[in-house]
User: Which sequence fits this backbone?
């Protein structure tokens, strides 16, 4: 019932760059009690500060998961915490005392730089071999480079690159593999040096952001194919195969145009993608641009492969789609939890193709929610959807400066798993604006026993 969250206590950029927040304190891993029967329900019961500054903890992963099924020597007892900016990787012992994680090992940035020529680590997955693989977004100079670092699953030493020399993708971000079909597919965010201090639309036109999926042979590690998603697929972030290990399809959320693409294996054996969801931009005034995209930033699929969820970080809503018909997702749940188009805010919606009223502010237990829903995590039974509001400190500061000052939050959505539907649980709130060391930005969440975005079945 405990939950681990990456908290960017202090956010930073590369050396010699200005900090994104005024707090010069270490990031930390927070453990939150989510058991309604507990006396410490909704409280941070432990904080593990990192021993360094300027890390920007972002995403995390396990040392073991379903890919190691049948190997009695493997336990889900280490949480891998890559640092998006410092390129440091922390290995945290969450097995000895799950309510009080402790530091186990640090992998220094130079190991990634010199052994792999990579930097800015992002997504972690365990492999059936017992090794750990981490996708990276750049090279040590801040240019885009989508390669993969392999760690030894016992010593956590850097082994080297997973991909062949010279075959790294132009950009990197997320990945998912499907062993039964001998395939891995990776996505693209952008060049670290372009996105670090905020989003500039000009950088998209200059080619500093990605719009492709990369298909890899899981056995030989060779890059087989690049699927160009076009302008509607710009900035493809989180990618999810269906959980069914026999499935040859899945979905990827594309941030810039508010789209979700379904990718699939064709009858001739290669891979293709089609747009299946589009959240239209809204014409606005009182904002930076005349049109505001939804900015889909996180997606996930329920363990039974029935529902797809995603967050619209600018508009401020979470959506639930029934994906029983894989090619025609059907919207069955929606809830607004903040965002940039609130009815009492400075932005006025002039034209909305969906004809939705501007939402009211989200207030839970007297706390006004600043920011918007971003990272999602779904319980294995599919009934509880947890959400945090921080994306990345540089973008937080640009789009939601109030969240920098007031801190982010963790919320819970109750899910109707029978008919579809999302309802905010107003009895649940973790307010990271009240942390002992000052307001914090909470990002990714993990269940100690496994969740809907960490396990890959073989």
Assistant:
């Amino acid at each position: 019932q405990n939950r681990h969250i990456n908290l960017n206590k202090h956010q930073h950029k590369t050396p010699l760059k200005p900090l994104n927040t005024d707090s010069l304190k270490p990031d930390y891993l927070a453990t939150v009690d989510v058991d309604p029967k507990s006396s410490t329900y909704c409280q941070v019961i432990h904080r593990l500060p990192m021993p360094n500054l300027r890390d920007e903890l972002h995403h995390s992963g396990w040392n073991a998961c379903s890919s190691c099924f049948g190997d009695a020597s493997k336990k889900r007892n280490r949480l891998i915490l890559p640092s998006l900016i410092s390129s440091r990787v922390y290995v945290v012992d969450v097995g000895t005392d799950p309510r009080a994680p402790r530091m186990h090992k640090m992998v220094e940035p130079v190991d990634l730089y010199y052994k792999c020529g990579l930097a800015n680590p992002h997504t972690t997955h365990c492999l059936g071999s017992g090794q750990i693989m981490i996708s990276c977004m750049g090279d040590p100079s801040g240019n885009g480079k989508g390669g993969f670092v392999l760690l030894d699953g016992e010593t956590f030493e850097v082994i080297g690159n997973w991909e062949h020399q010279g075959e790294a993708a132009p950009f990197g971000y997320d990945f998912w593999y499907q062993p039964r079909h001998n395939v891995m597919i990776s996505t693209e965010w952008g060049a670290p040096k372009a996105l670090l201090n905020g989003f500039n639309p000009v950088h998209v036109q200059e080619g500093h952001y990605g719009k492709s999926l990369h298909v890899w042979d899981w056995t030989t590690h060779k890059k087989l194919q690049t699927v160009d998603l076009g302008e509607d697929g710009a900035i493809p972030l989180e990618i999810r195969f269906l959980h069914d290990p026999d499935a040859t399809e899945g979905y990827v959320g594309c941030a810039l145009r508010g789209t979700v693409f379904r990718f699939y294996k064709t009858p001739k054996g290669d891979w293709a993608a089609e747009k299946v969801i589009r959240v239209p931009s809204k014409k606005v005034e009182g904002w930076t641009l005349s049109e505001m995209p939804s900015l889909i930033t996180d997606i996930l699929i329920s363990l039974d492969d029935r529902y797809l969820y995603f967050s619209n970080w600018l508009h401020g809503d979470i959506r639930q789609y029934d994906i029983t018909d894989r090619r025609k997702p059907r919207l069955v749940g929606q809830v607004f939890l903040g965002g940039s188009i609130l009815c009492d805010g400075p932005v006025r919606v002039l034209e909305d193709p969906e004809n939705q009223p501007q939402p009211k502010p989200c207030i839970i237990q007297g706390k006004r929610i600043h920011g918007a829903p971003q990272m999602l995590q779904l319980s294995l039974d599919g009934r509880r959807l947890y959400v945090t509001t921080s994306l990345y400190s540089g973008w937080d500061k640009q789009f939601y400066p109030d969240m920098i000052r007031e801190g982010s939050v963790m919320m819970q959505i109750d899910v109707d798993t029978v008919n579809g539907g999302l309802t905010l649980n107003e009895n649940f709130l973790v307010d990271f604006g009240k942390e002992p060391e000052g307001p914090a930005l909470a990002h990714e969440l993990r269940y100690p026993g496994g969740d809907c975005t960490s396990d890959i079945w073989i």
